[in-house]
Amino acid sequence: MKGVSSTKLMYPQPSSNHKHGGNGISNSVSYRRRIWLVAFLFFFAFVSILTLHNPTGARDPSGLPSSSASSHAAVGSAAAATSWPTPLPALVFDALVHYAVASNYTWKMEEDGLRAIAGVLRRRGPCNLLVFGIGHETPLWRALNQGGRTVFVDENEYYVAHMEARNPGLEAYDVAYTTKVREMPELLAESRRQRRGECRPVQNLLFSDCRLAINDLPNQLYDVAWDVILIDGPKGHEAAAPGRMSAIFTAAVMARYRGRGPVDVLVHDYDRAVERLCSAEFLCSENLVAASSRLAHFLIRSSVGPTNEFCTSRTTTAYGAATSSS
């Protein structure tokens, strides 16, 4: 019995943790919960990454795009289609012209000239429109060219600021003219002498030293492909006024330099000597489309004609009339 008596019997004893309220079991449960939480977060992140990298969108069991995906694509296509400039509705266009004609403002443009310009804007708009001169019709030209870009140039910086304040968003710039109406014969003669140099028809006016060139506008305006150019300024009613020699020359060069197609050039006050003679010299009679009592409409084709002459045949009549009046 010695072997039996010498054997040591082991009796289970309560653990110390159990003495303190069973925290061992609760810690084990908490640990398993953490494992499940981490696993769930990992699975959620994995699914999210797969969703972000799936470019085909939702699909039905047949493998075709679902109606939801198709509707989103349709909305995107419609938005892209409506990104093009929207012209002014015809009813609004006609109403604006009607009220402009019916205005009793003293210095308003005559009806036939106003309607002719409106007709060009209806046909070409929305377009890139450059206007020399700011006046009573300035808001009208801007409104008729809705969806396009309309830029105004004027010699009076204070009037430019005044019109900008009254017409928020108006794009207008002031320019310093260095010419006088009485200098027209001399300026025309000089431009002929430099026809193959500084006063050539095709050039970037930003770098021109021709006396008739306007080269102090913002640089980006010289790179615009203008569709319509309206010359209704600067002042030219007296000998000391700047006259429109520079505006007509500049318009003729711009129309040939960056034109992406025919450029409509409209000259107001065409009944005056400066406007008539300079138009014949730089816009050319072969480009004359129509003329009323005070408005001339020229169509300049940039790819047609010589590169060192404005007109296919030199307008000696305009030159002779200009020099004889000196």
From TrEMBL:
GO terms of biological process kind: plant-type secondary cell wall biogenesis; xylan biosynthetic process
Region (Disordered): 1-23
Organism the protein comes from: Musa acuminata subsp. malaccensis
Key words of the record: Membrane, Transmembrane, Transmembrane helix
GO cellular component: Golgi apparatus; Golgi membrane
Membrane topology term: Single-pass membrane protein
Location within or outside the cell: Golgi apparatus membrane
Biased segments, Polar residues type: 1-16
The protein's name: (wild Malaysian banana) hypothetical protein
Transmembrane segments annotated in the record for this chain: 35-52
